[in-house]
Amino acid sequence: MLRHNLHRVNLPLLLNSLIILLYAGSIQAETLQQAWQQAIEHNYRLKSAEAQTLSSQQQLDSAQGQRLPQLTIGGSYTQLSETPSAKTQIAGRTATFNMSEPSSGNAKALVTMPVFTSGRISHTIESAKANLAATRQQQAVSLQAIKQRVAQAYIDVLRAESGVKVAQSHADSLKSHAQDVNNLYAQGMVARNDKLAASVELADAEQQVVQAKNTLDIMRAQYNQLLVRDLTAQVTVSTDFPEAPVGTLEELTQQALKVRPEISLLTQQMTSFEQRAKSVKATLLPQIAINGGYKYQENRYQAFEGMWQVGVGMDWKLFDGSTRHQGDALATQALALKQQLNDVTTRIALQVRQAWLNVQETQKRLKVTQQAIKQAKENLKVTTNRYQQGLSTNTDVLKAEELRTTTHNNYNTAYFDHQQARINLRWAVGIL
User: Residue 27 has what pLDDT?
Assistant: First the structure.
């Protein structure tokens, strides 16, 4: 009987434990790495970049296909109103004889293969290869940009959550103070003005809580939008962040100039334009190709209706008023990209320097604000005790509470600015 009762008691407990475990698993905090993965899998901008890369691969395949033989198959059927005939004089008399049938068909199968193009095809292929490499680097640039935006939104959610906690703590503290003032007022120990002032400050703190919660809802919606999720989806994020890159400013700058995809992107684009310019100008030089195949012409008056053929052809544009200018235009675009590359190089060095300095600055702010929180908390405690003993004013308590709230806000700002600076430094170096 006792064993039976134990089973009856433990079964509901077991079910409750399972429910708690399942619920805890469902609200497990999302890491920044998981957020990045979610954005990478569903972001529309990245999908567009992937499509551009696929298009560039097809262009390269097309350029390489120019080296392969071209097989052409054709045929036709012709019906004439009269039978083609030839007229001549034989022994002083006019004579005619048929040359072909009034209706006939023909067919052909020809193979053409370039053997010498003055570099036109090879330059086209090299241009396509560089363009493919450029689009892949553009995809990498888009990936880094999306990850940086997601990290920003991720930090903004945590920043807003901390803002709600500070605002709520401020309201709770003022609520406790208002109760103390009411008790003292009921005992006739403080003026009515203290009671009114405490009530006004509490009402202001409560509306700050409402504002903070609204900001948090907006930050969560923006975060969900970047991850291509329902804007109202539950958001629970972790406070784990990747470490900042290690090294001196000079070392990190050199690393960025080697790793950042923007530099490789412009370099490959410049190479692509240079190769395209050479390819266009090569069309002005001799183009030699061989061809061969089989032709069939239906004609019973012809000795051989089907014949094999082989030949060599050459084209050489001795004068063309536009091709050379097209090549010069492409070469000029390559020079323009070179100037952009110089600008991007200096801009990257500036980004690394700014991010590195921000990491140092926010780290110092963190140490200062941590100490200020302890001091402000102790100051509020002392001021509140003095007020309860009639040794300080209500204004002193409110100022002490405002100072405590300010130090917490300053610490949160410094902490999340520091995390953002570390993320920005990783992005600037090219390892986000």
Answer: 56
